[in-house]
Amino acid sequence: MSVHKESIAVLGGLADHYFLSETPGLSNSLGWGPKGIELRGQVKITQTQVRRVQQFIETARYNIALHNCEHFANYILYGLPLSSQQTTCHKGLGATIIAQLQPKQTITENILADINRQFKHRLQVERAKRAKREIYQFCQTHQIALEPEAIA
Which residues does residue 16 pair with via DSSP β-bridges, in sequence order? Predict the structure, then answer.
């Protein structure tokens, strides 16, 4: 897992988006933005990193200058919320533009969004279990033989 960045195209390269991933590109990545946690695909993180994610979303709301995607990526990976985006003139300008355009999310909204994602995942798991039970019952009722892996 390492920190990666992509230029934000709509701003003509005036700002970058930082995220964590095992490979370059946003698929299978973990990031932070104005809407909170940005999880794409699957990522592998340690228990320490899970605790850091929880700490970050519980204590910080998105702010392009103080709690941006680069702060998030560096904090999760190294334990230090560092960002160099404001040190160059054009990146600082991009950050200023983004700060005016992007909605801010409160700490409570971060936590509620995370709870909502967890709830949706659990709901999907329960629906899948119920569907497997219904298939199994249907097959038993109609005396259809199932392969063991078909209901696993």
Answer: 7
Q: Give CA 56 to chain center in angstroms.
A: 12
Structure tokens at 74: 């560096």
Rg (CA), the chain: 21
The token pair at 101 is 């355009």
Render pLDDT for 42-97 as a digit per residue (tens, 0 to 9): 888 898 999 899 888 887 777 777 788 899 999 999 998 888 765 555 555 666 66
Burial 57-67 (b: 16+ CB within 10 A, else e): beebbbebeeb
Please report how many Cα atoms fall inside a 13 Å half-sphere around the Cα of residue 113, on the Cβ side.
Answer: 18
Nearest-angstrom CA–CA distance, 114 and 120:
10
User: Across-strand partners of 37?
Assistant: 32
| Beta-bridge partner residues of 36 | 33
The dihedrals phi and psi of 45, each to the nearest 5 degrees, come to -130, 155
Indicate the average pLDDT of the chain. 79
